[in-house]
Amino acid sequence: MWPRRPPRPRRFALPPPLAVHLLLTGATGSIGRRLVLSRLERGDQLTLVSRDGDRAARLFAAESNPNIRVVEADVSVPGEWQKSVDGVDAVIHLAGAGLTDRRWTAAYRKQIVDSRLDSTHQVVVAIEEARRRPAALLCASATGFYGDAGDRELDETAPPGDDFLASLCGRWEAEAMQAANIGVRTVCLRIGIVLDERGGAVRQMLPFFRRFLGGPVGTGRQYWPWVHWMDVVGMIELALRDPRLRGPVNVVGPNAVTNREFADALGAACGRPSLLPAPRVAVRLLKGGIADFLTSSQRALPKAALRLGYRFTYPEISGAMRSLFDPTSRAIVAAPVSSRPRRLTGSPAARIRVLAIDVDGTLLRSDGQLADPVIAALHRAERRGVTVVLATARSPRLMREIVEVLRLESPTINCNGAVIWNPLDRRPQFHESMESSLAREVVAAARAADPGLVVDVDVLDRCHTDRIDQKLQAQVNRLVQPDSVGPLDAVLAAPVTRLNLIAQPERLARVIAVLQRDFWTQRRIAMFNTHPCMIQVTAPLVDKGIALQRVARRVKASREEVMAIGDAVNDLGMLEWAGFAVAMGNGSNQVKSLANAVAPSNDENGVAWAIERWVLSGDPAACAAR
Description:
Structural class: alpha/beta
């Protein structure tokens, strides 16, 4: 043990939902990647401590994102990295050798143990030595803490098991709880089997199912404590914000299933039977000691989270599995959003200084026209000093007429966030481009799936194509209009803004499936299904929400001073990050569930109504009274 300073009074909760500063370890793991992108959506400052700093910086585009700082270090070894803990709001410790990454040999068992115990010890030392200690430490653990418990229901008060993993989790949590002795609220996240197409059990089982060789592990009667990755992110948010949460927390779904039910759900989601069980002996030969974990039973329940009112995004295994394989829903989301709906609050918490508005389906009527009441409301908002930001899937060139009609001088967010455009000098303020090699690879894969596919390439406000299908072009003309026709080789020799892939819906579905499998699940691209006949492909961190954060920082507006109005899936990041989010009456249920309020539809001058109600009053308290 190390000498300890005496406990001192300490805040246990983070600030209200403002941007916070978090230090993360294990950020390049499957959970860490999801969490980093979610926290960036919220506008948080992140310090990522990674053994491979270059990889982490590339993965999260750290050079172009001022909200990310990467520190290269091995957290199991003391060093300068520990000074980075000083002043952060919370530490989230996820680092550790992967349980399912390799066969459990004696050497790898030792690596699993040492990587967890040593790193947790050093994180707690860093917290103790910090002059300004964090409010909370969230440390990963596992439901393996309970060992093989049969059919018994397990809440956080259940006793530990007696196998290798149970012993490890007990020692791991004991190291983490040392932080509680120095006045830091500590939460041990007993994470179950995470459903994520990019890693973990699903990714390892999927090749067998695709070859019609899938089925339960062992007898299939053992309980597997599953949880969707979005609920892992959501429960981490709960643990950060709610000071009542401390000690162990089961990060699992609310409806436990057996391994056979798990396999059946996976088979149904990927369109394959679940008929061939994997005998325990075969699993042990292939994976070593991890066979004991895979065939043990843990009927864990998230009692602590449910007691505090957590609402699961995916409470049932069937819906959770389907979400991993549905290209029309998951594939088009550029970045994960909050796992819980907002509460309808009725009014902003602060005077609105930045107003972000989606264009098609929100600002414009169904006939594509601007209504006079909307134009008048926008002009009044600008005279009040509000920065009006139009956010759209259109390129800057296709927004020029709208901007001129509205006489706007503030920047626009174009190409779903890939470009922030200055309409006065017609130049980009920010450009998140796609590397030329990646763009060529995507085009090749897409055309291999459908040789007749039309490919348009956006480079800022120019659009290039090698052929035009007049029938298809008429359908997407509002969003994409090529201004040059010819071979794409020269265009794809340099970074591009966006690829627009156009085909009839039934053919386009094949292209989406290929891109989802080969690129999107590896977080190499973002995809936006902005029209039934078109999928738009960008760099992975492109999102209206991230672009809106950049605009807000530029005008020095806090998150609470930002209001966003939208109607569609590609507006989710923008609505999630804004301090006050308004969904249009014509918007999707997913958008409405995320919003603070719902306005009339775009054909009922909903934008003008929202501006009058929540922007022009100038007084949040007055808004609430109206």
